[in-house]
């Protein structure tokens, strides 16, 4: 009897908005107090950095394969999901010298 190539059983569900939020909230995240507010700061390793971003601190490009940090408000008024949607990628040095603006 010929072998069937149809998958058997259930498929794992795809990523959801909730799982993306959970993924962003895990890892080596820390909180920092800056300019009267609380910020979540999560490092992005060289391996994880696969896209190009513009640093809000210096206005220059953060190239792929460049370690940097992602930050978002931890005390925003619009809720956790809105704060996460407004996250920004910073050069690590730029965040250290003037982040949280």
| Low-pLDDT regions | none
Strand content: 25-35%
| Strands ordered across the widest β-sheet | 1-2-5-6
- Structural class determined from secondary elements: alpha+beta
- Gross geometry: elongated
* Largest β-sheet summary: 4 strands, antiparallel
Number of helical stretches of at least 4 residues: 3
Round the mean pLDDT to the nearest integer and report it: 83
N- to C-terminal distance: 68 Å
- Helix fraction bin: 10-25%
Query: Total number of β-strand segments?
Result: 6
Helix and strand run: HEEEEEHEH
Radius of gyration: 18 Å
Structure description:
- The chain has 101 residues and is α+β, with helices and mostly antiparallel strands.
- The strands form two sheets. The protein has a four-stranded antiparallel beta sheet with strand order 1-2-5-6. Strands 3-4 form a two-stranded antiparallel sheet.
- The chain has a domain of 70 residues.
- Helices cover 22% and strands 26% of the residues.
- Strand 3 and strand 4 form a beta hairpin.
